[in-house]
Design a protein that fits this description.
Blueprint: H1 2-42, H2 46-49, H3 59-118, H4 120-124, E1 131-139, E2 151-158, H5 164-167, H6 180-187, H7 205-217, H8 222-243, H9 249-257, H10 259-262, E3 272-273, E4 280-283, H11 299-305, H12 309-318, E5 325-326, E6 331-332, H13 346-357, H14 361-366, E7 372-374
Antiparallel strand pairs: 1-2, 2-3, 3-4, 4-7, 5-6
Bound molecules: heme C (2 copies).
One heme C binds near residues 305, 312, 316 and 336.
Length: about 375
């Protein structure tokens, strides 16, 4: 909870500063008051009491007690400066980040208001932990060979957002370094509409920044994301094993982390409502890795792109950065492919890479299109 400690640091500093200020102001007030009173008493009697005529202390006192008093006062002042300056310097860092934090706290609450208006929660889950049945209106006509246009009200799995910074902007240490998530929000992503004006959406730059600050504030730690991924793996592996005893770790991990972008209709597998009360249809995912938002992945495409297995593994770990070349032909990334190195172990990433390197392009092409059928049909 860095935010809380910043706030505490800020308020302690502030109290210390106020006390110091009060001491200084009161001290000065007393000093000035006493001085004026003394001056008043002397008014009109300058000649008699002229300093050089008055009773000045003798040499013994001047060079003795008095000198010592003045010196002691000097030493005391020096000590105060020596102590206060380093303390001030120590607290300076806290004061600055405190200011940053309180700024972003305002941004976070504005961001939350935008998110509520935009209904981010409806799709991404009330706790931003992802939702299986996000409602979307979808034209999936282009996914079928025999239909130009096919509009369905369907449900679509929307990814968790509390861990989005473990996948995108994985190097960002501060909010200022976030660019990929910002880009995704401005231009939309897959079936999610654009939110920024530049992408044709409703929100200006400031509002997008606020959304990013809000997401950043809601991020979970890598450890929490890893624990959640591990728990989901256990459940999913056990479930798939029931129907397919030979299922591999790589396949299950692929389903959990990659299929939503690389397998046709995979996030829509919850079913769809046909228009005009036409009933329900099942939306069945296409063959693993046949390509959706992300390109098709198979033994041919991946052997060409990453002749070295290690390059393939490290690409999955870091993902694609905007305009940074990857693979054999130095293709430029474009914010699309997330990095998984902060959530999955190297062993798990190797298992996925091995699985997708074995996917059969023939099967991906052949089992293409007749995957939509009326629920209740026996075929
Ligand atoms: C209509 C449902 C819907 C709404 C509303 C919605 N999203 Fe999304 N969002 C999705 C889906 C679905 C995806 C995944 C894209 C896909 O599968 O094609 C996604 C992807 C994302 C991603 C990329 C994450 C990743 O790992 O791929 C971010 C970031 C995001 N949404 C943020 C937001 C924010 C912030 C809001 C509110 C301003 C919002 N979304 C509103 C459905 C929605
Ligand atoms: C949010 C969507 C998304 C997810 C999730 C995703 N990818 Fe990707 N992937 C992409 C996109 C988009 C590209 C194309 C590169 C780009 O545009 O930057 C890509 C490219 C790739 C490539 C290079 C192939 C090529 O032809 O460019 C590999 C390999 C890959 N992804 C593997 C994976 C694996 C393994 C996972 C799961 C651990 C995964 N992807 C999850 C979107 C995604």
């Amino acid at each position: 909870m860095p935010e809380l400690s910043h706030m505490l640091a800020v308020s302690t500093e502030r109290s210390v500063a106020i006390v110091l200020l009060a001491v200084v102001v009161v001290g000065w007030a007393i000093y000035v008051f006493v001085n004026i009173r003394q001056a008043k008493a002397e008014a009109g009697s300058e000649i008699e009491l002229a300093p050089n005529r008055g009773n000045l202390p003798d040499d013994e006192e001047l060079e003795g007690r008095r000198l010592e008093k003045v010196q002691a006062f000097g030493v005391l002042m020096l000590l105060i400066m020596a102590l206060v300056l380093p303390v001030y310097w120590m607290l300076e860092g806290g004061r600055r980040s405190g200011a940053e934090t309180s700024f972003s706290e305002a941004a976070v609450s504005r961001g939350e208001a935008v998110a509520t208006a935009a209904e981010c929660f409806d799709c991404h889950g009330a706790d931003l932990g992802g939702a299986r049945f996000a409602p979307v209106v979808l034209d999936i006509g282009h996914q079928f060979s025999d239909k130009e246009s096919f509009v369905v009200n369907t449900t679509w799995e929307a990814p968790s957002l509390d861990d989005v910074f473990t996948r995108f902007d994985t190097d960002a240490e501060t909010l200022d370094e976030v660019s990929e998530v910002r880009q995704i929000l401005v231009y939309g992503r897959g079936v999610m509409p654009a939110w920024g004006l530049e992408g044709g959406g409703p929100y200006n730059d400031q509002q997008i920044d606020d959304l990013v600050a809000w997401l950043w504030d809601n991020r979970i730690t890598d450890e929490e994301a890893q624990a959640r991924a591990a728990a989901r793996y256990e459940t999913e592996f056990a479930a798939q094993r029931e129907t397919n005893p030979a299922v591999t770790q790589g396949e299950v991990l692929f389903d959990l982390h990659c299929a939503r972008c690389h397998t046709p209709r995979w996030p829509g597998r919850g079913g769809a409502q046909l228009p005009n009360n036409g009933g329900t249809i099942e939306v069945l995912p296409g063959p693993d890795g046949a390509g959706r938002y992300g390109p098709a992945l198979n033994s041919v495409s991946l052997q060409r792109l990453f002749p070295e297995f290690e390059d393939h593994v490290s690409f999955i770990s870091t993902g694609a950065a905007d305009n940074v070349a990857f693979g054999q032909f130095a293709r430029l990334g474009n914010y699309g492919m997330p990095g998984f190195g902060r959530v999955l172990s190297e062993r798990e990433i190797r298992a996925i890479a091995a699985y997708e390197r074995n996917l059969d392009p023939q099967r991906q092409a052949a089992v293409g299109f007749d995957l939509l059928h009326e629920a209740g049909d026996d075929e």
